[in-house]
Automatic annotation (TrEMBL):
Name of this protein: Bifunctional NAD(P)H-hydrate repair enzyme
Residue positions binding AMP: 407-411, 436
Gene: nnrD
PROSITE patterns: YJEF_C_2 (PS01050), YJEF_C_3 (PS51383), YJEF_N (PS51385)
Cofactor: K(+); Mg(2+)
Cofactor note: Binds 1 potassium ion per subunit.
Length: 499
């Protein structure tokens, strides 16, 4: 599903109004959707609407009137003077036939539900003064909160908390999700997110051309590789994972097994000779080859069928690792660079980026976590506030020429062409040793099958998150690969692929 920034949402609004639907009709639908959600949340008891001066407050007035018409006990607390309201919000307030309560936290009382209609997409500065005090009182009230469009205090486009924010149990947003419903910390404040249809036609998206989507199967349905009945293992690609030295071979083995599970036809572990016995003893379907240096690696890659590589897990931070990366890049192989392969370029990534950009048609994915990201992109790290995770990853992709995947509970994947996905399906127990190694292997498995980097990374992240949910709490990295077949089966069912 596409995700719209608040600016893109305003455009959707304007295009719809230009095509003949009055703005007030959109507000009526929005308010009714909020009332509907409120009815579902609490079947009885009083409801308090906290309304701001803008259209978010307008939605709140419509919801209040609708709920009162359905026989609910409703009151409205308004931030400003009623006769200072303007435009559609003023119209909506006219539909509320009762008095409004002054903007005083005491007025909240102890209702069954609070509807937060204070600020939505129009929030443009940190919350201070009376609104700040009210947000604190709403959160301290202990009553479930239904947020209109966004929890007040959350920046819709970046997901940042602007001073303070309402903690909602549920958020009703309109037409499409906004980045803040997926990015942290915003997502933590939203509770369950409902997307309501308010009469904006999907065709407006042809004009807006949104570049961001939630990382769901529909985002990459048509890139998903389905093995052909007449295919053979070589048609499914051959992934190569570079192993670390004797003391650190496990990470590469995790990646190798994951690449095989993800569907690569064959997987070879390129292992230092002195670690060969350890690697071979621990592997069965994954093949092992002795590779001690970049020259031998180049020889291995002389076989053109070996089409995708993983370098980084357990590789060691060294000039040797850098040479392996450059060898794979000059051999024009699809490539996942993770962990030590990223840190090996810390502080001086320009040669890496040049080499990535020089390669044509080669698919490269960088998979840093928040600790590794600033080593390659110091000036676009989160130490420089003001840019959202989405913007930072987009800038990193453009700078490096690679698809960049910044891990986290809200993993963002961006392509140098500007497209991005945000994932919200990772359970908290996925943060465990070795999970990142498995992810790089899964992505390489899809690259080996000929999937382009942006889609391979998005598919990989989604399957990785689903596998963690499938395995459940107590997960260790080894489990992820073992439950992948169950995730494949669900996906095949969803896509209607027979098996
Ligand atoms: N687009 C659509 O399709 C549809 C949109 N709809 C709804 O409209 C909502 C957006 O409405 P909106 O633009 O009127 O802004 P909103 O969030 O109500 O803020 C109001 C004003 O508050 C002010 N303000 C800002 N920050 C502040 C602060 N920290 N502390 C104090 N004041 C602050 C600022 O005004 P200022 O003070 O700068 O003049 C701002 O303009 C959207 O979320 C959705 O619910 C639906 O009706 C259906 C269709
Ligand atoms: K709100």
């Amino acid at each position: 599903m596409d995700v719209l920034t608040t600016t893109e949402m305003e455009r959707a609004d304007r295009l719809t109004i230009a095509a003949g639907t009055p703005g007030f009709a959109l507000m009526m639908s929005a308010g009714q959707a909020v009332a509907e959600a409120a009815m579902d949340l609490v079947e009885e008891g009083p409801i308090v609407v906290v309304a701001g001066r803008g259209n978010n407050g307008g939605d709140g007035f419509v919801a209040a009137a609708e709920l009162a018409a359905r026989g609910r006990e409703v009151s409205v607390i308004l931030l400003c003077e009623r006769d200072s309201l303007q435009g559609d919000a003023a119209l909506a307030a006219k539909g509320w036939k009762y008095p409004v309560l002054p903007f005083n936290p005491q007025a909240l009382g102890k209702p069954a539900l609070i509807i937060d209609a204070l600020f939505g997409a129009g929030l443009n500065r940190p919350v201070k003064g009376d609104p700040l005090e009210m947000i604190g009182a709403i959160n301290a009230n202990g009553t479930p909160v239904l947020a209109v469009d966004l929890p007040s205090g959350i920046n819709g486009t970046t997901g940042a908390v602007m001073g303070a924010a309402v903690q909602a149990a549920e958020t009703v947003t309109f037409f499409r999700k906004k980045p803040a419903h997926l990015l942290l910390p915003g997502r933590m404040y939203c509770g369950r997110v409902r997307v309501a249809d308010i009469g904006i036609a999907a065709q407006v998206l042809d004009e807006i051309k949104p570049l961001t989507a939630e990382n769901l199967p529909e985002a990459w349905r048509w890139s998903f590789p389905v093995p052909r009945i007449d295919g053979h293992k070589y048609a499914r690609g051959h992934a190569v994972v570079v192993s670390g030295d004797l003391a650190s071979t496990g990470a590469a083995r995790l990646a190798a097994r994951a690449a095989l599970r993800a569907g690569a036809g064959l997987v070879t572990l390129a292992s230092p000779r002195d670690a060969l016995a350890v690697n071979a003893a621990a592997l069965t379907a994954v093949m092992v080859r002795a590779v001690d240096n970049p020259i031998q690696f180049a020889e291995l890659l002389g076989d053109k069928r070996l089409n995708a590589c993983v370098i980084g897990p357990g590789a060691g931070v060294s000039a040797r690792t850098r040479d392996f990366v450059h060898t794979a890049l000059s051999a024009q192989r699809h490539l996942v660079l993770d962990a030590d392969a990223l840190t090996s370029f810390a502080g001086a990534p320009d040669r890496l980026f040049e080499a990535i950009k020089a390669s044509d048609g080669q698919q490269v994915v960088l998979t840093p976590h928040e600790g590794e990201f600033p080593r390659l992109f110091s000036d676009i790290s989160n130490k420089h506030p003001g840019r959202s995770k989405l913007e930072r990853v987009r800038a990193a992709a453009e700078r490096s020429g690679a698809v960049v995947l910044l891990k986290g509970a809200d993993t963002v994947i961006a392509s140098p062409d500007g497209r991005a996905t945000v994932a919200a399906n990772a359970p908290p127990w996925l943060a465990t040793a070795g999970a990142g190694d498995v992810l790089s292997g899964i992505i390489a498995g899809f690259l080996a099958q000929g999937v382009a980097a942006f889609e391979a990374a998005s598919i990989g992240v989604w399957m990785h998150g689903e596998s963690a949910s499938e395995a459940g709490p107590g997960l260790i990295a080894e489990d992820l690969t073992e439950v992948l077949p169950a995730v494949f089966r669900r996906l095949y069912d969803e896509f209607g692929i027979e098996y």
